[in-house]
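Inverse folding, one chain.
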């Protein structure tokens, strides 16, 4: 059977590339889907309505939501940032580590901002780096040097302060957008905590 395709040496690289692209695509799909969601955490705020006064209800809701984002969102931001940085770090031979960190965090920050206005656009922004890296890999086939990768990893501790500052900026941006959005949603009695998907029109 294998001989019909020119032998094992021909089929193996094809299967390897196919499997790699499929796994990469699935991983990127879930990563970008998470990054582009306006409401990252599905929280049923209605079960926390303990008070009888409307103002008290809304105050408790906002307080719990701020607490949730203060604890979980920085961790998610670090995961997104780390994953995108690793893609570029492994496959980019010319860009400095400083530039890689700056560009990847800029993509994370811009995606989070746009997610509050249009999720489709946010998805497109989130895919910029992963699929650009995949395109470069498929077209140029850069040589991955293990010593170079190790050298770059050894440089990471020098940028810990800068990474912390980047994370802080993104978290603050999220808060500056999330808090007014939450207040507005509660003021019009709109439930927050999950994305509103626009239904597709039937053809």
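Residues assigned per position:
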């Amino acid at each position: 059977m294998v001989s019909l395709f020119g032998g094992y040496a021909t089929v193996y690289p094809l299967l390897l590339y196919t499997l790699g692209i499929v796994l990469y695509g699935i991983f990127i799909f879930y990563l970008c889907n998470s990054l582009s969601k306006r409401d990252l955490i599905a929280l049923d705020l209605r079960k926390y309505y303990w008070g009888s006064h409307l103002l008290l209800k809304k105050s408790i809701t906002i307080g719990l939501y701020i607490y949730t984002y203060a604890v979980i969102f920085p961790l998610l931001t670090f995961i997104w940032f780390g994953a995108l940085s690793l893609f570029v770090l492994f496959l980019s031979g010319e860009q400095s580590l400083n530039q890689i960190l700056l560009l990847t965090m800029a993509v994370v920050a811009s995606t989070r901002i746009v997610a509050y206005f249009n999720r489709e656009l946010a998805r497109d922004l989130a895919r910029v780096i992963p699929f650009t890296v995949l395109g470069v890999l498929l077209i140029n086939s850069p040589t991955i040097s293990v010593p170079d990768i190790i050298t770059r990893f050894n440089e990471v501790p020098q940028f810990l302060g800068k990474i912390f500052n980047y994370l802080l900026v993104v978290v603050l941006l999220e808060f500056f957008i999330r808090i007014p959005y939450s207040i507005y949603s509660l003021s019009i009695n709109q439930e927050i905590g999950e994305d509103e998907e626009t239904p597709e029109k039937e053809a």
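Residues 2-37+52-187 form one domain. Helices lie at 8-35, 54-91, 97-114, 119-140, 146-155, 160-187.
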